[in-house]
Amino acid sequence: MPWRETCPMRERRQLVALYETGRYTVTEVARYFGVSRKTAHKWLNRYAAAGDEGLQDHSRAPHTHPNATPDTVAAEIIRAKVNHPTWGPLKLSPGPDVQVDVAAAWPAPSTRGAVLARAGLTKPRRRQRRVVPFTLPFAACDRPNAVWCADFKGWFRTGDGQRCDPLTITDAWSRLLLCCRGLHGTGYHNVRPFFERTFREYGLPDAIRTDNGPPFASLGVGGLSPLSVWWIKLGILPERIQPGHPEQNGRHERFHETLKLECLRPPAATLAAQQTCFDDFQLRYNTERPHQALGQQPPTRCYAPSPRPYPAPASNLSYPDTPDIRRVRSMARSNGVAS
What we know:
The chain is of the alpha/beta class. It is 35% helix and 12% strand.
């Protein structure tokens, strides 16, 4: 015999119909359907008041919302987001012209995010699988200028068709943007003048962390390039992340996402106009934009110039006496004679 299919509405109608016959009490009807007398009274009273519609399930949503965000506060959150499209809920704060009562009722970041989501001003972040970082003996980022991060944001073309390779340098501890320059290429001679300018303005760091691309590394001995050899002579340790692991320089990679949102959508008409955009962004990023890792402070409040000034005397590289030094011909073959 197949199972008999039923539903709550059918059971409620049968309960009412059985009781209206007048042959059974509420207690007997409730016992027959396996419910309490209180439940049986509830459905009988609802049927008497609204008929068959009274047997429908009612919404369990509360009639009042005492903790709901006021409309004035929600409007200010949306206005702050419109003024700063690339800022997340954690960074949005009431402006100086906001009324005192609205500023006092400023909600938590989670509530701000819910308000922006209802307004369609947020985009859900695609979940990505995180790679477990590989532990390397990198220098500790425990103070300003302990480690700088340098890289090139992916190249693009400005409105007039010129190629732009943005060189970016940041301080890993304070997140200060030290340099943001649009170049015509990534060669050593294009890059060195701007590192020199940055060294003169902020001093020398202890280490510079980069990827394995040019001009930071090469296929030569030890992966050294002319730029990294120059750093070593200045007393700066070149740190190169493991190939294919950008998370080892995650601070700088995350900064590139902000740079892209603020300055490259869309690119400027000319390279000069693009550089003006970079300069304006650098000023805002360093002096206005709060940073979560810094306790919602801008980077300038946490940075101090390096005590190691530039120019510093470049030292000659020294080699141990144990290896044999051999003279190499033009075809890169040793003649087997020690010099």
